[in-house]
Every structure is written in structure tokens, then in C-alpha cells.
Amino acid sequence: MTICALLIEDNPGDARLIREVLREADAGHGAVELRHADHLTRGLEQLAGEGVDVVLLDLSLPDSQGLATFVAVRAAAPTVPVVVLSGLDDEGIAVRAVQEGAQDYLVKGKVDGGTILRSMRYAIERGRVEAARRDLERQRDEFFSSVSHDLRTPVAAIKAAIGVVLANEPAEMPSGLHRLLGNVDLAADELAGLIEDLLQIARLRAGRVEVWRSEVDLRDVISRAVRAIEPLLATRAQRLEMSLPEQRVEASVDAEKIGRVLRNLLGNPQKYGREGGKIGVILERQPDAVCISVTDDGPGIPPEEHDRIFERFYRVSESSSAGPMGSGLGLAIARGLVELQGGRLWVESARGAGSTFRFSLPIR
Ligand code: ADP
Question: What is the CATH number of domain 214-362?
Fold first, then answer.
């Protein structure tokens, strides 16, 4: 298969050299068709047309310098792999380009045609694997989304039916049967919650969640979330302490979504925290942001898990086996909803030292 490579390089000597070493390495097999542009703008024009398999990119061009050159190429053709060509003096920037998603970098004058050819082939192959992975992820998201959608109606029907049965339960119903009916009711609630989580994460990933801002006092939003979780805290003899400022803390936020974030962050220590433990909620006002933290004195989370717990479906194995089943979606949803409002959510924790989940929201 012939590779169509676009060389974006302004130095005529370098361009000629690359063409020659590639021709030598190719030895008449016609494996590479080399196109050439000597300005970024011309390169981008060529990229806009079809057919370029890989870009060989010099970062220092008359109309663009450094990392910005790579960023522009990436933005114009996100799926075309890029191999950066650097001089000795800008190798550092080339490495950064690789960190930003370039497939490889080669130092000009230090590589022969065979190396360039191999680097381009690998880049194209890795690009293909990456595209296939993205496609699989998209299919998985669509599958979850459509299955969840289809499950909503039957679960709602079960919930409604069990409600009617419970409301009309005869007085002489045996206690065993009564308990089973209660279990069905709870299971229907759990299933409905899981389906809502799956739909929410699918909507977040597809960028289909809208933010409805209104001016609220954040102390009220927190108090409401705490009231919702209080009955559950009692089941594990946990105490909750709130520390809220005396003054109103006005912010323009989507209160419903912040409530959901808080219910997720409070639900976790309720599940994974210590029996009889303490959960703290603190609201602080900073000059241009508000910060809300939820602290517990539970088992803590080792640092190597701090990023992963925010991935969807990820659960820490130790806490999972001890506690009730969760979906591993709560923190992914919470982070998605906070970031949607321009905020940040992170964890501070160590094994055995409790956890603090903190999020900040800019005040507009
Ligand atoms: P879920 O609770 O449904 O499993 P989450 O996304 O809310 O999913 O949490 C991911 C994982 O992070 C949990 O499975 C648990 O292992 C860990 N985790 C979250 N919060 C805490 C906490 N406060 N203390 C200890 N572990 C926690």
C-alpha cells in the first residue's frame, strides 16, 4: 500500500534531503507518495483535501512556530497521525508535541530514510488502532444508552405495580411475603437509579447535558442534599457535621446538578465510610470561587487510585468487596457535572486516613 505523506517543511535543503533519503529507502517500490508544503497555511490547505495518511511536520515555519504549529495541524485533521521533525535545538518542544498527541518525533539530519519510513508506518498503524478504539467506545456508549432507555419503561411499570400491591396489602399478609415485596420495591428503586446513571453518563459524554443556571444560596443547596442522605446515615450510625458561613453564599449555578454532585459525594462515605464514623461538609467562599468539601474518616483511597476512581465503571477492589454494589459511575458523573459548570473536582486521601472530596466553582 502506498503511503501518502505530507511534508510541511520550509527549509528547501531539509525538504530535498528527506525526499532523497526516502527515495533511497523506498528503492523504487513506490511505497511513499510525498507531497510538500513550505508554509503551515499551505500544509493545512493540502490537509483539507482527501488522501493524506501521515504528516511529517517541521515545527518552525515562516507562519507558525513551536507547539502552536502542531496544535494547528491537529485541529485541522484530528485523525491524521503526525510525526514531528525537529532540529537539535527544539527537541524539547518535539517531546511536548508527542505528549500532546503527536505519534513520534525525529531529529533532522540524524535519521535515515528507513527510520522515517518505519516511523510513518507505525504512526499510521497506531492511528488506526486508536480510531478503532474510539469507534468501539462510541458503540459501547450507544449500546448502554439505548439499552438503558429501553429498560426505563418496564422498571417504571414494576415500581408502579409494587406500589399498588403495597398500598393494598391485606392485613393478614405473612411477614415473609411482606418483606419480599419490600425487597422488590427497593430493587426497583436501585435499578431505576442505575439506569438514570447510565443515561446521565451517556448524555455527558455526548455533550448533551445543558446547564440551567440560577442565582442561589449554596447553603440551601447543601442543606437539601444533606436532608436527602440523613435517613441512610442513621442505618450505619454515622454523624454528619456541616460547616456553612453565616452569610448567604450566592452563586449562579445549576442547583439541581450541584445537588446531584453532593448526593453522590455524600453517598460514598455513607457506603464506604466507617460504621459510626463522621462525615463533614464544609462550604467556603474564596475571592473568585466557592469551594465545597466532603470529608470522611473512612478507609481512605491510595494515591495511585486517585485518578482512576473518576473513570466510569471503576471501583476500588477493597472497598467494593466490603460494601454494597455500586455502579462505579457516581464520581464520573459528579466530575462531569462540576466541569460542565467550569469547576474542578478532586480527591485528597491516603490509605487509612479518610478522604476529602473537594470541588470548586467559579463565581461569575
Ligand atoms: P460507586 O460508589 O458506584 O462504586 P463511584 O464512582 O462513586 O462509584 O466511586 C468509585 C469508587 O471509589 C468506589 O467504588 C469506591 O471504591 C471508591 N470511593 C469513592 N468514595 C470513597 C470514599 N469516600 N471512601 C473510600 N472509597 C471511596
Answer: 3.30.565.10
Look up the pTM and report it. 0.74
Q: Which of 196, 268, 271 to mutate to test the pocket of ligand 1 (most atoms within 8 A of CB)?
A: 268
From the list 339, 328, 329, 325, the residue with the least C-alpha distance to 201 is 329
CATH fold of 138-206? Helix Hairpins (1.10.287)
Topology of domain 3-132, CATH: Rossmann fold (3.40.50)
d(CA 7, CA 79): 17
Residue nearest to atom 23 of ligand 1 (CA): 269
DSSP letters spanning 138-200: HHHHHHHHHHHHHHHHHHHHHHHHHHHHHHT--TT--HHHHHHHHHHHHHHHHHHHHHHHHHH
Residue ranges of the chain that CATH labels 1.10.287: 138-206
SS3 135: helix
* pLDDT string in tens for the chain (364-residue length): 789 999 999 999 999 999 999 888 877 677 889 999 999 999 999 999 889 999 999 999 999 999 999 999 999 999 899 999 988 778 888 889 999 999 999 998 888 889 999 999 999 999 899 889 989 988 988 898 899 999 999 999 999 999 999 999 988 989 999 999 999 999 999 999 999 999 999 999 888 899 999 999 999 999 999 999 999 999 999 999 999 999 999 999 999 999 999 999 999 999 999 999 999 999 999 989 999 999 999 999 999 999 999 999 898 865 544 455 678 999 999 999 999 999 999 999 988 899 999 999 998 6
C-alpha span between 92 and 337 (Å, rounded): 36
CA of 310 to the centre of ligand 1 (A): 9
CA-268 nearest atom, ligand 1: 20
Domain with CATH 3.30.565.10 in the chain: 214-362
Best residue for ligand 1 mutational test, from 232, 297, 305, 315 (most atoms within 8 Å of Cβ)? 315
The ranges of the chain annotated as CATH 3.40.50.2300 are 3-132
